[in-house]
Amino acid sequence: MPTSQQGDRPGAGAPGRRGVSRRDFLARSGQGALGLAALSAGGALELGRAPVAGAAAAPAPVVRPPRFKSAPSLVPPHLQVVDLGIVPATGLLMTTPSPLPTGRELTTAEAVDERLGMSGMMISHPNGSLVWFLPEQGFSTNLQVQSYRGRPVLTYWTGRIDSGIGYGNGYVLDQQYQPVATVKAGNGLQADLHELTLTPQGTALLTAYRVRAADLSAIGGPAVGQAFESVVQEVDVATGKVLLQWNSLDHVPVAESYMPMQGKGPQDYFHVNSVALWDADHLIVSARNTWTVYLVDRRTGAVVWRLGGKRSDFSFGTGARFYWQHHVRRLGTAQLTVFDDGAYPPEEPQSRGLVLNMDTTHRRVALAKAFTHPAKLLTYYEGSVQVLPSGNVFVGWGTEPYSSEFASSGELIADYRFPTNDQSYRAFRYPWTATPGEPPAVTLERDEIGGYALRVSWNGATEVAQWQVLSGASAATLEPVAVVPKSGFETAITSHAKGPYVGVAALDVHGKRLGASVPVKL
User: Which of 98, 395, 429, 503 is least surrounded by CB atoms within 10 angstroms?
Assistant: First the structure.
């Protein structure tokens, strides 16, 4: 795990400011609960009273990460759920939990010991129970469902982080969690953490960085200096061929940056953090440190217009401006979604998920809807906004350990929280069905009266409704002896079947067999 695991670089070196310390994060994350939830005796979270204005926030309950006897190598962070009594949209939660930067490296054992759980890719049910977890010692981002060659796939990025810049690769998995492709940057660069978007043409849009000579005098630096140039590439997933490369310094001068000089090294003046298709001929590129969204000609690389920042081509209605933004996506033909961090340094009192109405003819932008958290979360970097097919809106709060689902009206429907000091670069919600290529895992425990308990799990299986217990005189002659309903990620089954060989089979809601474990001997 890298020393600095920031998804984006905060303005830690800005004049009169200091970096965000562990103490700062711990203090700030305490405000997150704000009386919304209390831990019930059964361990579930229940809705409490609304917070009293000005009241001190209560820290979130400390809950150890789950430990599974059938899958002891998996120790994901505990996901707390605030159930507001409203049925959320369909789909599973997709996050990439990891510890916030603490100024020191954390081993997996230390992260577990500190009750953070492991870093990695995580899929969860809306009730908080685990579906799939893939641990990663490094940093991971952007777990989501996309389409490749007409089939649903999981995609994510993993690698190391240095000063808010990622160096790694993207990955594509099929519905058995088997590798389909590794997505790498070309031209001697490494793929950055911020984006991995697949297109209908079988290509991937990704980001990367490189150091170039630049005139830094506009931000208080030398005329002959160096900058981290943000790079956008479109690569063919199957062949790795670079089909497009857009270099920020060729089109956007350092003078557009709001980020002052940060030490004497290369300056991250632009900081690309999202890229997506606007239409077949254009891309939308978001730059955190210029507060600007750029429409880029996909063929020539020319900037067609700027939304926000020092040279905006658009006028803004009340509440439509954004600062240090992330995750910009086109919505329909005339709207845009933006995660408005509002910090860092702070320009707004709290972060917002925005839906903006865009009039590209008259170059005007109006606020359609802003989604804010009742705890008034201020996200220093990272974050995402996803409009679901139902019209609900799912917001990931980045460095704040929350993700939230809202009705289109702005009403909070459901709220999810990782342990204090955990983060997920983005958070999404997608329908996903999968049957793992590996068999179900089972472990055996004897009791004191001659029976035994089976602990059963199947990491990533989404369609299991029941577990069928199998028993027989040999591993090749197992027969069904009982059926029990699936209960959470790991199901405990007690049995007195004689064996001496036992196993389990996974059944779907219709009783169809999906897979079977390797038999174990009593």
Answer: 503
Phi/psi for 79 (5° steps) reads -105, 110
Joined together, the tokens standing for residue 109 give 């054992």
Strand ordering across the sheet containing 120-124: 130-135, 120-124, 92-95, 428-430
* β-pair type (80-83, 412-417): antiparallel
Determine the pLDDT at residue 498. 81
Q: Where are the alpha helices (DSSP H) in 191-238?
A: none
Give the model confidence (pLDDT) of 70-107 as tens digits. 999 999 999 999 877 777 778 999 999 998 765 455 66
Question: Mean pLDDT across the stretch 383-398?
Answer: 96
- Given the DSSP bridges, would you call strands 130-135 and 441-446 parallel, antiparallel or unpaired? unpaired
User: Tokens 């389990």 sit at which residue?
Assistant: 504
The pTM of this model reads 0.86
How would you classify the pairing of strands 120-124 and 92-95? antiparallel
Could you tell me the sign of the dihedral formed by the alpha carbons of 249, 253, 259, 260, in that order? positive
Angstrom CA distances, 354 to 40, 258, 365, stand at 33, 21, 12
- The string of DSSP codes covering 293-329 is EEEEETTT--EEEEESSTT-SSEE-TT---SS-EEEE
| Residues 6 or more apart whose Cβ sits within 8 Å of residue 100 | 5, 22, 25, 399, 421, 422, 423
Q: Does domain 441-521 have CATH number 1.10.260.40?
A: no
Quickly list DSSP for 345-390.
TTSSSS-EEEEEEEETTTTEEEEEEEE--TT----SS--EEEE-TT
Give bridge partners of residue 221 from the DSSP assignment: none
Spans of all domains in the chain: 441-521
The answer to whether 317 touches 364, Cβ cutoff 8 Å, is: yes
- Which sign does the torsion angle of CA 456, 462, 467, 473 carry? negative
Using one digit for the tens of pLDDT, what is the confidence trace for 281-334?
Answer: 999 999 999 999 999 999 999 999 999 999 999 999 999 999 999 999 999 999
